[in-house]
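ok here's the first one, seq then struct tokens
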Amino acid sequence: MNIRSHSVVLGLGLVGLLSYTACTAEKAAMKDRDISAVPVTNPELAQNQAVQPVPKMVDGVFATNDHLQPVYFELNQSKLSGNAVERVKSNAEWLNGQPPFLIRIVGYADSRGSIKKNERLAERRAIAVRDAYVALGLPKERFSIAGRGAEEPACSPTTEDCLSQSRRSDTLIEEKSLASR
């Protein structure tokens, strides 16, 4: 390689490093920001505006939203029940009225069973919810799935009610819509 090639390679490497650093800093800033901490200087303005909750960051740049309800499953099942289908329909209606967010479906299981079994079951639950959204007209390309097994229980202590709340799939949306990119 000649000196010019080394300069090009070095320059490209430096650009990549700077891009990575900027993206990492932006993600960290997004996690740390809290718009609710900004003081309101005009009391009349504060009374006329609804307070918007800060989205809870859950999975990287994906966040929960109050409009998207968890979909619950029966013990050892990944098939959607009638109530689960209604939740998916309600979530899909809201998603259809929003900008084209990327969507992550995260499946969970309760703590009964082996780690491997719970991870597979959680992934099947996420796939079932994704497939239901797609059947309702949302583009499959917008979805990613993840199975978390019993990693993040919905509550504690470990009671039957708490275990049933842990058998779920959560629908998360990217904080920034595709249209704003």
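and now the second one, same deal
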Amino acid sequence: MQFKEEITLIKRKNCSILEYLHAVKALADKITLIDHPTSDDDLNFYILNGLSFDFRDIAASIRVRGKSLSFEELYDLLVGHDSYLRQLETTTQQLMVMANYTNCNTSFRSSYQKDNGKPFWSLHNYSQSRDSRSQYKTLGQPNNNEK
């Protein structure tokens, strides 16, 4: 009776989908050893009820199927869905990093731009370097106006 209660109350929580499925299957096997076999429908019910929120879509579609799934079929579907969710999360994170980089890079460039679309630093350095070059040319060379 204890195993029947455990299998009814088991939740995925923070464990991986593989760990969760193996835990539910182990409980179902213990119940079977006590001479109370668990049907595929019951096993599916226990597994789907214990899934986390991110599996709600696939759980709903599995529940409305007319044909019950074997544990192996359900296992394959849920592991495949978990893989899809991890890939989606990775892609989302990469897009967020790229968007953040683009946003920072764009705001950096626009904060330094002045007239004519040229960066402020290039106008400032150019005018300083032009003035300093004219000073360097006159150093050490006689001025034609002074004789």
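notes on #2: The mean pLDDT is 77. DSSP finds six helices and no strands in the chain.
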